[in-house]
Amino acid sequence: MVKHHFNTETVHLSEKRLGSFTSKVNPIYQTSAFAFGDLEELEGYYQGNGAYLYTRVGNPNTDDLALAVANLEGAPTGVATSSGLSAILAGILAVTKTGDHIVATNDTYGGTYHMLENELKDFGIEVSFVSFENQEEIRESIKANTKLLYSESITNPLLRVEDLEELTKIAKEYNIITMIDNTFATPFLCQPYLKGIDLVVHSATKYIGGHSDVTAGVLVGQQDLIAKARAKIVNLGLNLSPFEAWLGTRGIKTLSVRMERHVNNAQFLADQLKSHPGVCKVYYPDFVSEKGNGPIVTIDVIGKCDVQKFFKSLSWIKIVPTLAGVETTVSYPAATSHRALSKELRDELGITEGVVRISVGIEDPEDILAAFLNALDQSIL
Ligand SMILES: *Cc1c(COP(=O)(O)O)cnc(C)c1O
């Protein structure tokens, strides 16, 4: 390469070693745009030769993450976004517009509820929240302008397991698109797309990333729907950064081993806590898959324990308003994820002031159990 003056060299030095290594792991394309040698190459991009143009429009790292999740879900393609919520938004805007109607389960993740209830209204998109436990309620709330049925494979925080076959059946009858948030189950336990669900969404912030160091989302489905979602992501700027995508992709490599430990530990904890006098209810699914029943255990200690004292007595277990890290953590839905809900709705759903959601980590199960038994014994009324 030609040697230039100092000021020019400082600007161009980093480009000199570009593309000359065979790294074992895909590099991070931490670049906002891609360069073209001539106009033919540029034209090639628009002819769909697989090149990249501008990171908001597409980037190898964000595609790596999206296609990895699509692959695990058994779906043809996918797209990555800046967060779980932006993936949900992109999916919704791919199938609805002003004047349309969505039927959603009333026990969604709090942030999703907030978006559907408060933000979509401003777009002129109407949402009916009903109990998806009752299929008649779903059918009764479908209208001529209903475009989407929205639910979660395992709901948060009370861990109801959605009947995906039934949902698909109803949607086909009325010619409606279905969308499932598969964040809690992950494709390790559940693959909604293979059960006929049209769009599957993840907060990759959780088990896909797995280490509480990424905020990201992924939406997977058929080519045509994902193309529509991708247009929303590009035009509304919901894209993911290359570095976060790279971390998410790295997380997937250990998804199976993490999930196996998470679900085994969760099953053990759920079984053990059932008989404790400080616990009035343990929420844990009876059956999700042959591989296990989920990584989260929710308990209700209302009336049995002093909740303040319980949280104070958890020793090494931290109170964290998220889930899915390798460390066991607890959250308090009434004050965090479901704060946006009215107290009436929370009570109706069973999210009392005694509900504690446990994100069971990958530590030794005996240590996890001992920490909870200690906190229950300390705080029992
Ligand atoms: C965390 C979460 C979301 C939102 O994801 P973000 O990455 O925080 O935007 C959506 N659904 C479920 C089930 C979640 O747990």
Spell out the CATH superfamily of the largest domain.
Answer: Type I PLP-dependent aspartate aminotransferase-like (Major domain)
Strand content: 5-15%
Overall residue-averaged pLDDT value: 95
Largest beta sheet: strand ordering: 1-7-6-5-4-2-3
List low-confidence stretches: none
The ligands found in this model are: pyridoxal-5'-phosphate
Summarize the helices and strands and which ones pair or pack:
Blueprint: H1 6-12, H2 39-46, H3 60-73, E1 77-81, H4 84-95, E2 101-105, H5 110-122, E3 126-130, H6 135-141, E4 146-152, H7 164-174, E5 177-181, H8 186-189, E6 199-203, E7 217-221, H9 223-236, H10 242-252, H11 255-273, E8 281-283, E9 296-300, H12 307-312, E10 318-319, E11 329-331, H13 343-349, E12 355-359, H14 365-379
Parallel strand pairs: 2-3, 2-4, 4-5, 5-6, 10-11
Antiparallel strand pairs: 1-7, 6-7, 8-9, 9-12, 11-12
Helix pairs in contact: 3-10, 4-9, 11-14
Bound molecules: pyridoxal-5'-phosphate (PLP).
Describe the structure.
- The protein is 39% helix and 14% strand.
- It folds into 2 domains: 39-252, Aspartate Aminotransferase, domain 2 (3-Layer(aba) Sandwich); 255-379, Alpha-Beta Complex (Aspartate Aminotransferase, domain 1).
- The chain has 14 helices and 12 strands.
- It is α/β, with parallel strands linked by helices and 381 residues long.
- Helix 5 links the parallel strand 2 (101-105) and strand 3 (126-130).
- The protein has a 7-stranded mixed beta sheet with strand order 1-7-6-5-4-2-3, with helices on both faces. A 5-stranded mixed beta sheet has the order 8-9-12-11-10.
- Helix 4 (84-95) packs across helix 9 and helix 11 (255-273) runs parallel beside helix 14.
- It has helices at residues 6-12, 39-46, 60-73, 84-95, 110-122, 135-141, 164-174, 186-189, 223-236, 242-252, 255-273, 307-312, 343-349, 365-379, and strands at 77-81, 101-105, 126-130, 146-152, 177-181, 199-203, 217-221, 281-283, 296-300, 318-319, 329-331, 355-359.
- Pyridoxal-5'-phosphate is lined by residues 83-85, 109, 111-112, 152, 156, 181, 183-184, 203, 205-206, 215, 217.
